[in-house]
From TrEMBL:
BP term (GO), one: methylation
UniProt-listed CDD domains: AdoMet_MTases
Origin species: Candidatus Collierbacteria bacterium GW2011_GWA2_42_17
InterPro entries: Methyltransf_25 (IPR041698), SAM-dependent_MTases_sf (IPR029063)
Gene3D superfamilies per UniProt: S-adenosyl-L-methionine-dependent methyltransferases (2.20.25.110), Vaccinia Virus protein VP39 (3.40.50.150)
Keywords of this entry: Methyltransferase, Transferase
Keyword field contains Methyltransferase: yes
Domain (Methyltransferase): residue spans on this chain: 44-137
Keyword rRNA processing: no
SUPFAM superfamilies according to UniProt: S-adenosyl-L-methionine-dependent methyltransferases (SSF53335)
Protein name: Methyltransferase domain protein
GO molecular function, a single term: methyltransferase activity
Length: 257
């Protein structure tokens, strides 16, 4: 029987090869490291740490991290990678909408974790991040910019994504169908992997929440955060690139005051 899976249940094992492909995690972590060092950050909570792509380069820089994720499948991969890098896996399976009891110097929630979270819960996550850090602590989060996404055509028809870097054993691609709901600012995504040219009969479904600059700005203001930097894209040279209207990402680095 063909099955329709929750997105991370289905995609965790492909995540690093497909979704994280081309994201300059090390360069972004270097930029964050400079900001963290200037602000005496030593401990970081990584909300939605996934497979550890920010956890690992930041732990290598000497920060103490706690990674939180709701997906046991993603955490299993994170643990394996962290140990392989000779670092200490400090990971918990939890929902980032729940209160975080420990205190940290910084809280990060990066690479569209908030895409899995509706506007009401977005505000809860930001509150949890703020409550989990000391005063003067730093919070970093990003969302996908609705204003950017709505400029693309979404015909709800299947298309085949480009082939992703081989893991040496298999060639991976993906069949994807996307539907944009402008009213509720969500993107419905249906995907199946194509392994060595063969389409998997199972599929995954996801609803991605998109946000506007106005919504993000209102949240920052309502929590009285001091914005240090807003970014709109990534590159290998700078890690993060300053925000310009309609950029794909709305990234925020802010300080609790
Ligand atoms: C797009 S991935 C990003 C992972 C990682 N930060 C990275 O940069 O590669 C989003 C992650 O957020 C996690 N996530 C989504 N909703 C969550 C929630 N309510 N509580 C905890 N983790 C959540 C997912 O399981 C997934 O691992």
């Amino acid at each position: 029987m063909n099955k329709n899976f929750n997105w991370y249940k289905y995609n965790a094992k492909y995540y690093d090869q497909i979704d994280a492909d081309g994201i300059p995690y090390d360069a972004i972590a270097d930029t964050l490291t400079k900001i963290f060092r200037k602000n005496n950050v030593k401990t970081i909570v990584d909300l939605g740490c996934g497979t550890g792509n920010f956890y690992i380069p930041l732990a290598k820089q000497g920060f103490d991290l706690l990674g939180i994720d709701i997906s046991a499948d993603m955490l299993k991969i994170a643990k394996r990678k962290i140990i392989k890098n000779k670092l200490k896996p400090n990971l918990i399976l939890s929902d980032i909408r729940d209160v975080i009891t420990e205190k940290f110097d910084a809280a990060i929630c990066l690479y569209n974790v908030i895409g899995d979270i509706n506007y009401h819960d977005f505000s809860i996550v930001i509150k949890n991040m703020i409550d989990s850090i000391k005063s003067d602590g730093i919070i970093c989060f990003d969302v996908i910019n609705f204003e950017n996404v709505k400029t693309f055509e979404f015909d709800n028809k299947y298309f085949i994504e480009k082939e992703f870097k081989s893991d040496k054993l298999h060639r991976l691609s993906r069949r994807t169908k996307q539907k944009l709901n402008k009213q509720d600012q969500t993107l419905e995504i249906n995907q199946s992997v194509i392994i060595d040219g063969k389409l998997d009969k199972n599929t995954s479904n996801n609803k991605m929440y998109l946000y506007t600059l106005d919504q993000v700005t209102k949240l920052i203001e309502s929590f009285g955060l001091r914005t240090k930097l807003m970014y709109g894209s990534y590159d290998n040279k700078h890690g993060i690139v300053s925000f310009k209207n309609n950029d794909p990402i709305i990234g925020v680095i802010a300080q609790k005051i």
